[in-house]
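DUF4283 domain-containing protein
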Amino acid sequence: MSDRSFSLGIVESAFTAIWNYPKSFKIKAHGDNVYQFFFAKETDLIRLERGSPWLIKQFTIHVRRWKSGINFHEAARKIGERIGTVLEVDLFEMRPKELQIMKVRVNVDITTLKQSIRVASPAKQQYEIQLKYEKLGIRCRCCGFMGHEMRNYDTYLTLSASNVDPLLAWRADLKADQN
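Structure:
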């Protein structure tokens, strides 16, 4: 970890050159300067592990095997169960190809939509997951209720007429893109 962030491109080009252009080398960014490397041959991985730590622009980089130990489908199912009745869990590849998302199809009570939920990892680290909904009908960003839009909500109209900026309680991106 470093106070300085490295872009995926910088890390990829630096390690590709340092490691002598390993065949089918790929890299995936996980945020907070955490990167996952993929190799076609186990021998490349062993060579790089034994050579660790590595130095990039005066920063020490430690390479170790990825040990997730997490069943992502089961984790997604557990998260979905906190929202409603889980119908389906699946992994989808997005553009660019390195990006994957987990979708959980859930029957929910639309009167109690959540914007986010907090979960803990096995190591007790807390995360907040921002939720998005597909096939979401008309919803007010002021009160969160379904059936009317913010522009038709009396409180919003009153505040707007008084030149008061209403505090919008609900994120605009709560509805998932259908691309």
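The two ends are 34 Å apart (CA to CA).
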